[in-house]
Design a protein that fits this description.
heterodimer, A: 163 residues, alpha+beta, 5-stranded mixed beta sheet, 5 helices, B: 775 residues, Aldehyde Oxidoreductase, domain 3, Aldehyde Oxidoreductase, domain 4, 6-stranded mixed beta sheet, 17 helices, globular
């Protein structure tokens, strides 16, 4: 393998020094295995399932498709940033309350996708919600309670109903 | 770098959130208890088996055969060992104990040494200090294969030369009931096929093995059954079971894929060889090769009925392709044969079931377990019969619906509840909610945006299906679970090896304990092998079995608690009872909170809970083989673009025989999630295998439903008839939703298109190219 590389990544507002990494490591791998942030999950490693979703400079990305070394100089946000002091974000709380969590493996990615959706559009239609999360595969829920969690989050945030 | 401790999977009451916080009332039976693991899961800090980390750990990787059938002529591991960072390269010669494993039959090699029987069969494994090094090292191993012609046809396998010392017939089961020569006024016949479905749990196979000081090994693993893994790992390591300790790591879904051993033995071998912790995580492609799938099936049926629609005889021949190794094929074909005629009274039957060995990918457990395949066939037959009789298909099903007291084709009389007519009516009574006009928005059309379906050409159809299966293990298996409940200062701690795979046992265990003991705070200890077996999280059995064990242990604690408190008050044992969260006497003289009743006295009880015995089937397939049955019905509405062969499910309605609703929210999640997998099998999910070689081992090519593929499931009235013998009268609910959803959806496509569609999943070409001869 190529010579180890050192570089810095800004994750959840904290500068992390990555030491001795293989240049081929994905952002997902570095977050999980080098920085102790396993919230982003690896379920397909080809950008199909959305389990590894994180924000890079405010864009929702599949971190399995981003080389970690190419994310130097960006601001990375992971699911771990949503409840830094243990208090859940409104989206996280809605997932718990609506029964949107079963095995939970897809949940962090879905939470990130919904946070991203609601940041862009506070009052999405149901079809827009389905489209926004259609890049996140879930094998347990059939999405019913996930959609309901979004309804709950929108209602609590804006008082409006998802049409 | 922070260490992710292995005990992060411990499920404990959340500090915030609904239900179990100290001082608040925890949910009891019938209430929507919130998952105690919900908060760590939404935070991303619940430790799945891929999330484990240990100081000095190595990464494992498996080398697999590219051929479905081959002889190995040589294996040279030297090039792999020369790669810097490689710590171990192991082959079959390095397995100190039994070189084979298997759930029921130990017929599968830990590593192939001379014969390859399926594509993806493990040949060697590697441990290295970086996952990429391990991958490259596995690639560097030089294996020379002499490729052989694979045996790929399950029907032909019956007569073909054996590809395994155990022969090609894994199980041949004949059910002969009544007079199988009886004929009716009307006869319908058909041959149906089901493709190979993958469980596709989002979490791939992953785990960590840590060598222990006593020469044993600790395995942190995602599995459905810790103790069956323990037995198989110990046998191959040639260690006593107590030196192989397993703890459940977080499980990212299962659906049957984790009932067989995958990487457990390899991991343990690598850890013992290197003396270091070893972690292994399959990628998605390897996951497709690393676990068994749902059996593809070819099923011939002939139904005989009188002119008024009464079924008088069913003949069926079922060929299930089990692939290279036995796995749970004997039990799968057992279920397929036992439930082959569906939930309909059938006085005469001749069912011929075969589970066959081929060089195709091994098949075994998946949600619905044999009943899924036959339900697809018997429901197509029921529609065909209704058509031949000129009868309403729902009326035909009601006329023949099983009920308590009826005899099954196995000769077993149903003594429990059998509300078949009730689930049918409950679905039929739900009004049609779909707008009669096609939703022309691009995203709402068949195929979605970019598929250019012409709204004017879209046709719509509706389909109905009913199904059933057994709850818990059958055919004489001594099925049990073990649980320990400890009550200490008003806090109950439950220990049980039941694998929580997402299904929600964690809420069931808490609800049952609260209901019995009247306490609110219930802590769940980690699931591991320090306590007796809980059996598998499969067969819709854990609510009954591990729920039953928890309930029994809690009741034993309650009786001891009441005896102690009675003695405190100079009362006779039996004079006190738990009423909600208080201990009371009938005369009102004693009335104190459970949490304060014992002071600092600790009460602990461990119970092994067995269900009523079942019995093997005899040579005619007759016997009381099953404990209990659960029934389900679905109605589907599908829009189809006939030109492109694209389908869109626009409505799905269900009702289910649940015995008793224990947790309405979790139940809904099971009905929705199970139906989604059934819809997948109807419209998109199939592992494509050509000449024994898998063509679509990825989520790009193996499609599972997304949020755009599924409408909101509409649940009709749930049928709550308490099942005798079941804890709180509840039946398992996990599998039935997957059974009748597939045939309902395909029936809707048939209704929309007028095509026969005898095969599932329905492919676009089955519709768009119907009637067009291949050039």
């Amino acid at each position: 393998m190529t010579a180890p590389e050192d570089y810095d990544l800004l994750v959840n507002g904290t500068e992390h020094h990555v030491v001795g990494a293989w240049i081929g490591e994905s952002l997902l791998y570095v977050l999980r295995e080098r920085l102790g942030l396993p919230g982003a999950k690896n379920a397909c490693e080809q950008g199909e399932c959305g389990s590894c979703s994180v924000m890079v400079d405010d864009r929702l990305v599949c971190s399995c498709l981003v080389l970690a070394a190419s994310a130097v100089g960006t601001a990375i946000t992971t699911v771990e940033s949503l409840a830094p002091d243990g208090a859940l974000s409104d989206v996280q709380q809605a997932f718990v309350d609506a029964g949107a969590v079963q095995c939970g493996f897809c949940t962090p990615g879905l939470v990130m996708a919904v946070e991203d959706l609601l940041a862009r559009d506070a009052a999405p239609t149901e079809l827009e919600v389905r489209e926004a999360i259609s890049g996140n595969l879930c094998r347990c829920t059939g999405y019913g309670r996930v959609i309901d969690a979004v309804r709950v989050a929108v209602r609590r945030r804006t008082g409006a109903e998802v049409a | 770098m922070s260490e992710i401790t292995l005990t992060d999977t411990t499920v404990a009451p959340p500090a915030t959130g609904a239900g179990t916080a100290t001082g608040t009332r925890g949910a009891r039976i019938g209430e929507s208890a919130s998952r105690p693991d919900g908060i760590p899961k939404v935070q991303g800090r619940f430790a799945y088996s891929a999330d484990l980390w240990a100081e000095g750990m190595l990464w494992g990787h498996t080398l697999r055969s590219p051929h479905p059938s081959a002889r190995i002529t040589s294996i040279d591991i030297a090039p792999a060992l020369r790669i810097p960072g490689v710590q171990a390269v192991l082959t079959a010669d390095d397995v100190p104990g039994r070189r084979t494993y298997g759930l029921e039959i130990h017929d599968q090699p830990v590593f192939a040494s001379d014969t390859i029987r399926y594509q993806g069969e493990p040949v060697a494994c590697v441990a290295a200090d970086h996952p990429e090094t391990a991958r490259r090292a596995a690639e560097a191993i030089v294996v020379t294969y002499e490729a052989l012609e694979p045996l790929i046809d399950a029907e032909a396998a019956i007569e073909a030369p054996a590809i395994h010392p155990d022969g090609n017939v894994v199980r041949h089961l004949v059910i002969r009931h009544g007079d199988p020569t009886v004929t009716g006024d009307v006869t319908v016949e058909g041959t149906y096929e089901v493709g190979m479905q993958d469980q596709a749990p989002l979490g791939t196979e992953a785990g960590m093995a840590v060598p222990s000081d006593d020469g044993g090994v600790e395995l942190y693993i995602a599995t459905q059954w810790l103790h069956i893994d323990q037995a198989q790992v110990a046998a191959s390591l040639d260690l006593p079971p107590e030196k192989v300790r397993l703890q459940l790591a977080g499980v990212g879904g299962a659906f049957g894929a984790r009932e067989d051993v995958s990487l457990q033995i390899h991991l343990a071998l690598l850890a013992l060889h290197t003396g270091r912790p070893v972690k292994m995580v399959y990628d998605r492609a390897e996951s497709f090769f690393g676990h068994v799938h749902r059996h593809p099936a070819r099923m011939w049926y002939r139904h005989h009925a009188t002119a008024d629609g009464t079924i008088v005889n069913v003949e069926a021949r079922l060929i299930f392709d089990g692939g290279a190794y036995a796995s749970s094929s004997p039990a799968v074909i057992g279920n397929a044969a036992c439930f082959a005629v569906g939930p309909y009274f059938t006085p005469n039957a001749h069912i011929d079931g075969w589970a066959m060995r081929t060089n195709n990918p091994p098949c075994g457990a998946m949600r619905g377990f044999g009943a899924v395949q036959t339900c697809f066939a018997h429901e197509a037959q029921m529609d065909k019969l209704a058509d031949a009789l000129g009868m309403d298909p729902i009326e035909l099903r009601l006329r023949n619906a099983l009920k308590t007291g009826d005899t099954l084709p196995t000769g077993q009389v149903i003594t429990g509840t059998a509300p078949v007519a009730e689930v049918i009516r409950a679905v039929a009574e739900v009004p049609d909610a779909v707008s009669p006009t096609i939703d022309g928005r691009p995203m709402a059309l068949p195929g979605g945006a970019g598929r250019t379906a012409d709204p004017d050409g879209v046709v719509r159809g509706s389909g109905f299906a009913v199904g059933f299966k057994n709850i818990a293990f059958s055919e004489g298996f001594d099925d049990f679970s073990t649980a320990r409940v400890r009550l200490d200062r008003g806090v109950a701690t439950v220990t049980c090896a039941c694998a929580e795979v997402g299904q929600g046992f964690v809420t069931i265990a808490q609800q049952f304990t609260r209901e019995v003991l009247g306490v609110d705070e219930v802590v769940l200890a980690p699931a591991d092998t320090t306590i007796g077996s809980a059996g598998s999280t499969s067969a819709s059995r854990q609510t009954w079995m591990s729920g039953g064990a928890v309930k029994a242990a809690a009741e034993a604690v309650r009786e001891r608690m009441l005896a102690l408190v009675a003695a405190d008050h100079g009362l006779a044992p039996g004079s006190l009872r738990v009423d909600d969260d208080r201990i009371v006497s009938d005369d009102g003289a004693v009335d104190l909170p459970v949490t304060e009743a014992l002071g600092d006295r600790v009460v602990e009880e461990t119970v092994e809970y067995h269900h009523e015995p079942t019995y093997p089937l005899d040579e005619h397939g007759q016997g009381d083989a099953h404990l209990s049955f659960a029934f389900v019905a679905h109605r589907a509405v599908v829009d189809v673009d006939p030109e492109l062969g694209l389908c869109r499910l626009v409505d799905l309605v269900t009702s289910q025989d649940v015995g008793k609703v224990l947790n309405p929210l979790q139940l809904l999640g099971q009905l929705e999630g199970g139906a989604a997998q059934g819809v997948g099998l109807a419209l998109m999910e199939e592992i494509l295998v050509t000449d024994g070689t898998v063509r679509n081992a990825s989520f790009t090519d193996y499609l599972i439903p997304t949020a755009l593929d599924l409408p909101d499931l509409r649940v009709g009235e749930l049928v709550e008839q308490p099942e005798p013998g079941a804890p709180f009268g509840a039946k398992g609910v996990g599998e039935p939703p997957t059974i009748s959803s597939t045939p309902a959806v395909v029936a809707a496509v048939r209704a929309a298109t007028g095509l026969a569609l005898p095969r599932t999943p329905v492919r676009p070409s089955d519709i768009a190219l119907a009637g067009i001869e291949a050039p």
